[in-house]
Design goal:
18 helices; Preprotein translocase SecY subunit; about 5% strand
Length: about 425
């Protein structure tokens, strides 16, 4: 009843109502576009072939696009080229001083980097779509293509690249005028769209006796446990006590209060698994369309369940956990801001010592967060591979789905609390995620 009351409260606030409806409308546009076929391709036959021969890797890729990749619709590339471009420019801001300086110039600098990221997205999408077009012509003698040749290649490049650019625009519109992070919500919508079909097919296998009911119950219990663990960790914080010194400004006394500096256990959120998945997907996608023996063997190494895939995936999750935390948190800047405002941490000298202390705490939290992400993303996938479950429903999809849902609900909660409406939780709003 409380949840229903909170949903009704959403529609009592005109601004929040318009934001929620705007977000749902654009996500509906995305789902409609995910069913529009690319010209010149027999989508139904191609989908059957890819799902029959693509194995777990195709199911993994298809999950992020909401089924658009296997059908090769206009949104087949999804939003992943944008994610790849974002990774590249975040790395370049650390490596190239000029870009690093640009990132610190405020809104003007960030807008320039966003513009460069858009250009890079178009380039990456064009390269990937051209590789797909050439790969389709060579796949099974080009039986899925009506008129192979340069006209088909150019049309495919234009269609798929435009689809990715349009999704990028949809994500930005949702972020600015809707509720939640638009890019994350598009990925979330693609993942959630595959759940009903996967659940139905699983129960059909149980009814046919091809899947043990005990295994099904075990997997359901595992999913519930993972969801509970994700919610617990994502809301966990390390609170560092901060004391502000008293000072007189204009004849009035300021400061003297005690507060805390909140540091999340998983500071990077769902970014590391998304980045890691994007990097693994790029070479494996191209390899899947090239009929060369050694390329096919390389693609098999990057298949979920293979030891090379698991080691690579965990390594990238750990790397991006530390990298992304370093990008969004600068201990020296935090220490300087505390010192300028008369704040200090108990038992720690202001300035460099404070920065070193924050860095030490942040490093330990990031290590714990990276281990948590690795376990959540990899362990369920290994178990699913062992039990031969006929659909991809691993920890990565659960982590992204729950994480994005928490982000979105947190923003809705903030709007409700700000306007003195009760939120979804009984004891105040959800702790926001960075």
């Amino acid at each position: 009843m409380r949840v229903l009351e909170s949903i009704r409260n959403i529609f009592k606030i005109p601004e929040l109502k318009s934001r929620v409806l705007f977000t749902l409308a654009l996500l509906a546009v995305y789902r409609i576009g995910a069913h529009i076929p690319t010209p010149g391709i027999d989508g139904a036959a191609l989908s059957k072939f890819l799902l029959d021969h693509g194995g777990a890797m195709m199911g993994f890729f298809d999950m992020f696009s909401g089924g658009a990749l296997s059908r090769l619709t206009i949104f087949a590339l999804g939003i992943m080229p944008y994610i790849s471009a974002s990774i590249i420019f975040q790395l370049l801001t650390v490596v190239i001083p000029a870009l690093g300086k640009l990132a610190k110039e405020g809104d003007a600098g960030r807008k320039k980097i966003v513009r460069y990221t858009r250009y890079a997205t178009v380039v990456i999408a064009a390269i990937q779509s051209f590789g797909i077009a050439v790969g389709l012509e060579g796949m099974s003698g080009g039986q899925f293509i009506q008129n192979p040749g340069w006209a088909f290649r150019i049309m495919t490049v234009i269609t798929l690249t435009s689809g990715t650019a349009f999704l990028m625009w949809l994500g930005e519109q949702i972020t600015e005028r809707g509720i939640g992070n638009g890019i994350s919500l598009i990925i979330f919508a693609g993942i959630v769209a595959s759940f009903p079909r996967a659940i139905i097919s699983t129960f059909e296998l149980v009814r046919a006796g091809e899947l043990n009911i005990f295994i099904l119950i075990l997997l359901i219990a595992l999913m519930i446990a993972i969801i509970a663990g994700i919610v617990f960790i994502e809301r966990g914080q390390r609170k560092i006590p901060v004391q502000y010194a008293k000072r007189v400004v204009g004849g009035k006394m300021f400061g003297g209060q005690t507060t805390h500096l909140p540091l999340k256990i998983n500071t990077a959120g769902v970014i590391p698994p998304i980045f890691a998945s994007s990097i693994i997907m790029f070479p494996a996608t191209l390899a899947g369309f090239i009929a060369i023996p050694w390329v096919q063997e390389f693609a098999k190494l990057l298949t979920p369940g293979h030891s090379v895939y698991t080691i690579s995936y965990v390594s990238m999750i750990v790397f991006f956990s530390f990298f992304y935390t370093a990008v969004i948190y600068n201990p020296m800047d935090i220490a300087d801001n505390l010192q300028k405002n008369g704040g200090f941490i108990y038992g720690i000298r202001p300035g460099q010592k404070t920065a070193e202390y924050i860095y030490k705490v942040l490093t330990r939290l990031t290590f714990i967060g990276a281990c948590y992400l690795s376990v959540v993303c990899v362990i369920p996938e290994i178990m699913i591979q062992q039990f031969n479950v006929p659909f991809y429903f691993g920890g990565t999809s659960l982590l992204i789905s729950v994480g994005v849902a928490l982000d979105t609900v947190s923003q809705v909660e903030s709007h409700l609390i700000t306007r003195s409406y009760e939120g979804f939780l009984k004891k105040g709003r959800i702790k926001g995620r960075k």
